[in-house]
Specification:
The chain has 358 residues and is α/β, with parallel strands linked by helices. It is built from 10 helices and 14 strands. β9, α5 and β10 form a beta-alpha-beta unit.
Length: 358
């Protein structure tokens, strides 16, 4: 394997503190395991277990809030650092809204997908986020844009058609090996699960409608909800029998949730990817997901079902039918086999191609 001279990854918070940040930690760790040289430029280093072979540079930031100003302030620090420490052999790979990268990974929906309002032009926040996004995608040195799903790729091409040729195949997040080792801890109940902190966006209210109807067909179904504040979501369950659901709140270990469910439902109104779906698949759990999830592009008949979802007037009958089918049939789940090692190899091939063009 050819050795990449140097890849510099940019992320504000380096650590296991969020979905995008976890992606960066796992990716750079996989890169160094494949003998690649990696530097991380961050605002703050929050990862105590980083391999010694990864050089981490904390740049700090003048600004903490608002978020749009902090993002601009961090990008200024990145630009100044790289001006002072040039490396003509490096591939600069950003996971933030920066100005000097060759590669950018787009982890979430474009800002321009937001609902427009008449007085938007008066908002400095909207002006700044719009500017940062355009700059991230359109600056002349940008050679590759990596969406984390086909859904995000389509949105980028629609909003910024001039960057179409730079939008490459999705760079799907991997799943760590620990998930494939999780065993079902059966207590005799049939359990449907929902996991998500941002429960409104991820469709918990819709999931409640689905499970309510499903219980008319399978009265023994129990609904396990995790990841969100039980007090906040309790009103959704006021008319439910007390033994028909569990509000688990935050779960510290994956097996505390994935080890207890027979089916995952994810009726998200908007989800750039849907990591819990990939993780459930690795455990061997069928997943029923909405068409508005980036991971839906990977879900076929062997993994579960993708269901249409009208976010304004949800119709759940086809969701109920899909859940019922997967719960009553004895069918093994086909793994997606997403790995961080595979993601790292995808990046190495890209870096080598870009270096060869210089």
């Amino acid at each position: 394997m050819k050795k990449v001279a140097h890849s510099i990854h940019i992320v504000r918070r380096y650590g296991l503190v969020g979905g995008m940040e976890n992606y960066v930690v796992q990716l750079v760790s996989a890169l160094v395991s494949l003998h690649q040289k990696v530097t991380v430029l961050c605002e703050v280093d929050e990862y105590a277990n980083s391999p010694e072979s990864i050089r981490v540079v904390e740049l700090g930031n003048r600004f903490r809030k608002p978020r749009w100003l902090a993002q601009w302030g961090f990008s200024q620090r990145v630009s100044h650092y790289l001006e002072a420490h040039p490396d003509s052999e490096a591939i600069i790979h950003s996971h933030e809204r920066t100005a000097v990268h060759h590669v950018t990974t787009f982890h979430g929906p474009p800002f321009q997908c937001r609902k427009k309002r008449i007085l938007d032009f008066l908002s400095p926040r909207i002006h700044m986020w719009s500017y940062l996004e355009r700059r991230e995608l359109q600056k002349e040195q940008v050679q590759a844009i990596l969406p984390n799903s086909p859904m995000i790729a389509g949105q980028l091409v629609q909003l910024y058609p001039e960057v179409k040729n730079n939008v490459l195949a999705p760079a799907y997040p991997g799943v760590t090996a620990e998930f494939s080792n999780i065993q079902r801890q059966s207590d005799g109940r049939t359990v449907v699960g929902f996991l998500g902190h941002e429960w409104k966006r991820k469709g918990l209210d819709i999931a409640c409608l689905i499970v309510t109807s499903l219980r008319e067909l399978l009265p023994e179904v129990h609904f396990l909800v995790a990841g969100c504040n039980p007090e906040e979501i309790q009103p959704l369950f006021e008319r439910w029998p007390v033994d028909s659901y569990t509000l688990a709140g935050w779960v510290g270990e994956p097996e505390q949730f994935l080890g207890k469910i027979d089916l995952l439902i994810h009726p998200a109104r908007s989800e750039p990817f849907g990591m819990v779906v990939a993780e459930a698949n690795a455990v061997g759990i069928p997943t029923i997901v909405s068409e508005h999830c980036g991971v839906a592009a990977l879900i076929g008949e062997g993994q579960g079902s993708v269901c249409a979802l009208d976010v304004q007037q949800p119709e759940v009958s086809h969701w109920v039918a899909a859940c019922y089918q997967w719960l009553v049939q004895e069918k093994a789940v086909t793994p997606l086999s997403l790995s961080w090692h595979g993601l790292a190899e995808q990046h190495i091939a890209l870096y080598q191609r870009l270096l060869s063009q210089r």
